[in-house]
Amino acid sequence: MTILIIAGILGFIMAFSIGANDVANSMATAVGARAITVRQAALIAMFLEFLGAVMFGSHVSQTIVKGIVEVEKVQPVELMYGALSALIAASFWILIATNWGYPVSTTHSIVGGMMGFGLVAVGINGVNWKTFLFIVLSWVVSPVLGGLISFVMFKLISLSVFHTKNPKKSSTVAIPFFISLAIFTMISLFVKKTLKQPLSESFLLGIAFSLVTFFVVHFAVRKLINEKKDVYDAVENVFKRAQILTSCYVSFSHGANDVANAAGPVAAVMIVASTGVVPKTVEIPFLALLLGGIGISLGVFFLGQKVMETVGEKITTLTNSRGFTVDFSTATTVLLASSLGLPISTTHVVVGAVTGVGFARGLEMVNVGVLKNIVISWLLIVPTVAATSAAVYWVLKLILKF
């Protein structure tokens, strides 16, 4: 029972640190573009991060537990204390990075932590290098993909709205279309992956919801577009409302993907402690997802502001239309990945998307100095957390003699 309480506390701290750092991925662009305030962002994110974690989080959690370390080669007790070591090391360094305002990858952190204990417990053969390389590839692909989608989306919005003869009229069709596309993606994946329904049914429901969304948003945009006399102010005013919706979309998908970083190791401890064996298949207990969702929500609320400022304001200047583009691109990439069980870095996706929007306006629009420091922090986080986790595990093994 003691080990379960400790695991729960450490998992909660890890989830708290995820919320504190990764809130930038869900609400930073909306705050940076002045669509909502920091407090409003925190309250919205608290609710949606929790929902995403509980509803979608089990898909990625299974990868975190089973994919990184060759658990069949370790004793059950080693897996328990190894998971605890990973949680301690990862949460420690994430909170330090948060204090400095750096948006590090929480996915990198927990993967590094699990690797660290695996190397000490079994040696170089303790790590599933094939799986690790697959995840590393996703880390490279995620910022590039996020950047490309964001770049293309921004160009599409510019061509379909701002560079037309009548931007006001064009926005009544273009904006509802892009929001409907986001709704289609989210509904289809939810029905397929969470409700376990056939692909055809998930697509049909996605189409149905997106069509309803299109007409509702269309009439709302027609009303909003006349509130401003200046054409471009009017269009940005519409995007301001739309960005709140897309930020909610990002927040939900972020909770789905990143709760795994806290729930996965906790689930490993819970299952081993209750059964005494390492199971062949891992079912993530609802309690672990619940604990992770609550922790993420509180981290968002109490410590989210510093990283939010870095991502939302310091990489490039964001307007509401640019923020909308970043949110849509990020959420689509992340939600697809979470449903596939691929623990990509939400941080990498959103930073790539913000950079993509900046590059779409010209290289000089991106603060390369800030971007360089962020990339350096990405490169350092895995070896740093792995070394710390290995040291914590070694000390625990020495003291407890397991």
TrEMBL record:
Subcellular localization: Membrane
MF terms (GO), sorted A to Z: phosphate transmembrane transporter activity
Pfam family, one: PHO4
Segment forming the signal sequence: none
Gene Ontology terms: cellular component: membrane
Chain segments annotated as transmembrane: 42-60, 81-102, 108-125, 132-153, 173-191, 203-221, 284-303, 375-396
Protein name: Phosphate transporter
